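Example: Outer row dynein assembly protein 16.
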Amino acid sequence: METSTLVGHENVVYVVSLDIAGKVLTGSFDKTARIWSLNDGGECLCTMRGHSAEVVAVAVDQSTQTVATSSMDQTTKLFSAVTGQNVVTLRGHTGEVVVNQFGSGGSTVITGSFDNTIKIWDIRTARCIATLNGHTAELTACHYDFSCRAIASSSLDGTAKLWDVRRTDSCRHTIAGHTDEVLDICFDSVGRRVATASSDCSACIWDASSGDLISAMIEHTKEVTKVFWEPAGHHLLTASQDNSAMFWDTETGECLQELKGHTDHVFSVVMSYFGDTILTASKDNTCCVWKQFNSKNN
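Written out as structure tokens, the predicted fold is:
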């Protein structure tokens, strides 16, 4: 059930993230990122400015209270989550930066770009310490596993790749099962499976050690733009260009619930750590909060 809407961005809300403390981080085509409180009626606590183009990726490291924002201006910026002040700007990609994620402890951040590469950055020095090459088209996503020893990536070249952080010269596996561009990828909480989203209107789950297909979810009527694992790993959330999000059984591929309410493309979907709240971000300029959601974890 949708319970509230976060309104304040002046353009498309492209990405959303939720932390355990009940705060929401959003990135928008209005070139800003915002932090919101879910406990005060959706109050905007902080606005982070400085990018010269759309903000399309956001992440927060709880241990250092640092926010990373990536933009179509080819940079990633690090901000204080407390003050909203820009701490440092990471430069080095030659194309738009469309994804980022912190490593454990906040010592590194990975970024993926339309220059076809993934970069690993040392946050203390703001320097790139490794570049992963292998995709033949623009990156759409990259994701650490729980140990930060492996990275999964997806690309407009129609493939997903699995990488060993200790051997960045070549990928460990290439997944080539989708029939169109792969738009997103993420590991489950223990790093045994990866989920992918594709322009072929499907989401798939793969074995991370072998690259073999485990299950496919096929009910969306337009491209699937985002995948997000329920913390317990039994279910998967997807966001789609068909204006909906869906909640799936990862073993059977059955859609258990469809979340409808947006009036335009749903770009992003996340679930709270406890599985009782889902957030969706849309091209309709809003972020919807779905409460009292029964994920059947327990």
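The mean pLDDT is 91.
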